[in-house]
Amino acid sequence: MKPALCVAVVSMLFGVPLAHAACPNDAVFHVFVDQIRGYSLRANGATEPCQVLQGPLTTLMTAGATVIDKKDSFHVAQFLTSSTVDIFPRKAEGNEAPSRSFMLTMTNDLLSIAVDSHLNDFVLTVRPSEAGVLVAPANSSGPLPNPIHITDPNIVQYVSIAIDSDDNLLIAGYDIRGATIIDSLGTSRSITSPPLLRSLTGSKTGLLPGAGLFARNNITIAVDPRTDELFVYNQTSDQTQIQVSVFATEANGDVPPVRTISGPATGITGSDLPGNKIAISSDGRLLVAEPNLRILAFAPGARGNVAPSQVIEDSTSGPVTQGGIAVRSRGGRQHDGNDDDQ
């Protein structure tokens, strides 16, 4: 069989088409409870996944928040039914076990995850007794009964985290009045006692106040790997639609976004399910997870009521709910240029 035909060969795994070649360097990954599906960042329209990770050996049961580290490994936090964070190598495929796992034994409310350049895992938990960010040192494995615990005195309800290019931790949540707040903590200086660097909050930000268990607006934050601009997925103030607000690098105080992406033309419908709802590629594209196996991509600098430049639609059968999203692309700070790592 010719090599080109070998790449095209597809088998079935648990009823899901499975390609036998790992995704290209530039790829976006959708995470659904018990599986991870990957697609080329060049895809547009109906497409089959170029990589599917699914099966009993994966131990994926409630996969949600996911991030890809500088070695292109997947870090997957399982929500509610598991206290586990699973790490899979770049080319993980089919019914493959994680290369390692660690367990945060004191909580299973793992809502968001970020990884710094030293490969330390930062995992956000919303369980009231442990609310904050738990830090697992690089290469952690097995039960971690006493991880570093970072709390933010400005926040009473934690929602999402991210790491910037300086290895500082951004935490999004709500203060005691219910106002949205996004704090930047200097974890590049100290992980055990990080100082407050910046605090983004106030009416000019246009970020909707929260209410309820996970707030009426499940915010996701992401940082552009090129510019460190801050992207915030949230609702409009009238709660009628989703908006993605983009703030200047190191935005501080009560300041407006430099641009927003919102409106019926965008096709963004929203979801209250756990997981990263947005990711930013190394060329500045905004990627938005949507239900029905769809990913919307917006061109760098997109603003207003604008249609996506790409709509990646999985042409195979699978979950109809929305899952988390993660992106891998060259040229950004997340990568060291070594394709063979792990």
Task: Explain the overall architecture.
A five-stranded mixed β-sheet has the order 5-27-26-25-24, with no helix packed on it. A five-stranded mixed β-sheet has the order 7-8-9-10-14, with no helix packed on it. The chain has one helix at 3-8, and strands at 10-13, 16-19, 27-32, 35-40, 45-47, 51-54, 63-68, 74-78, 84-88, 100-103, 110-115, 121-125, 132-136, 142-143, 148-150, 157-163, 169-174, 180-185, 196-201, 220-223, 230-235, 242-247, 259-262, 278-280, 286-290, 294-298, 310-314, 324-328. Helix content is 2%, strand content 40%. The chain has a single domain (16-328), classed as TolB, C-terminal domain (Neuraminidase). By secondary structure, the chain is mainly beta. Residues 309-342 are annotated as: Disordered. Residues 333-342 have a biased composition (Basic and acidic residues). Keywords: Signal.
Any chance you could write out the topology, listing elements then pairs?
Elements: H1 3-8, E1 10-13, E2 16-19, E3 27-32, E4 35-40, E5 45-47, E6 51-54, E7 63-68, E8 74-78, E9 84-88, E10 100-103, E11 110-115, E12 121-125, E13 132-136, E14 142-143, E15 148-150, E16 157-163, E17 169-174, E18 180-185, E19 196-201, E20 220-223, E21 230-235, E22 242-247, E23 259-262, E24 278-280, E25 286-290, E26 294-298, E27 310-314, E28 324-328
Parallel strand pairs: 5-27, 10-14
Antiparallel strand pairs: 1-2, 3-4, 3-28, 4-6, 7-8, 8-9, 9-10, 11-12, 12-13, 13-15, 16-17, 17-18, 18-19, 20-21, 21-22, 22-23, 24-25, 25-26, 26-27
Protein name: NHL repeat containing protein
Signal peptide: 1-21
Keywords: Signal
